[in-house]
Amino acid sequence: MRVTDGSERETLVIMLCGLPGSGKSTVAAELVRRLGDVEVIATDVIGGRAGRYTKLRRQLEGLAGRRRYVVLDGTFFSRDVRDEVRKMGYPVLLTYLKCPLGVCLERNEARRAGIPIKGVIGMQRRFEPPGDDERPLVIQTDRTDPEAAARRIYRAVVRTQAAGARGADSGDSKGSEQQGGTAEDGSNSGGDG
Fold first, then answer.
1. What pLDDT, on the 0 to 100 scale, is given for residue 46?
2. What are the residues whose beta carbons fall under 8 Å from the beta carbon of 173, sequence distance 6 or more?
3. Greatest alpha-carbon span in the chain
């Protein structure tokens, strides 16, 4: 599915995944400031598991053509869950906000509406970090401030869109689907810089 607005710009989905307390909502807020034409969908406010992806699909379809970017702020704890988003047909930039459990627990504790500690630990046990084949942008959020994380994501967005434009010019629609490379220091090892 190709989603465009009246100017034929494709809506890019920026999927932020990571444990509760890894900085997803804070980085999403920075992306709103940096990107401008963006909508954030926080999956924790979509509702229970039943029908979550149907609701997410409806929200994405409602925003397509109205927004240049959609940021998904959620745990996206398994490959299967991330694949469900990819199956929706939008170009996706997967960004893994990696953070040690102890730091996530401290940040979660500081929240007014934090998740119970057992819940965070349970998610950590079930969490499947994105594999190299998913081509995530990996940002170590215990060593990277939110503004720097947003800058890295912004640069990846620019590269993703440039690759998509090149792919569209050559008839290859796969060019804009993923941008990536992983590096423990949070830098993008995707090859161009």
1. 60
2. 2, 167
3. 50
| Residue length of the chain | 193
Segment holding 17, helix H or strand E:
strand 12-17
Q: Strand pairing partners for 96?
A: 17, 138
**C-alpha–C-alpha distance, residues 7 and 97, integer Å:** 32
Res. 189: pLDDT tops 70: no
Distance CA 43, CA 87 (A): 17
143: CATH:
3.40.50.300
Query: For residue 157, what pLDDT is reported?
Result: 95
Q: Is 1 within a domain?
A: no
pTM for this entry: 0.80
The reported pLDDT for the residue numbered 7 is: 45
Q: Give the C-alpha separation, 76 to 16, whole Å.
A: 8
From the list 17, 65, 84, the residue with the least C-alpha distance to 44 is 17
Residue 193: inside a domain: no
162 band by pLDDT with thresholds 50, 70 and 90: confident
Mean pLDDT value of segment 141-148: 97
Cβ neighbours of residue 189 closer than 8 Å, sequence gap 6 or more: 181, 182, 183
Tokens representing 74? Answer: 């959620």
Inside any domain, residue 184: no
Domain range for residue 155? Answer: 12-176
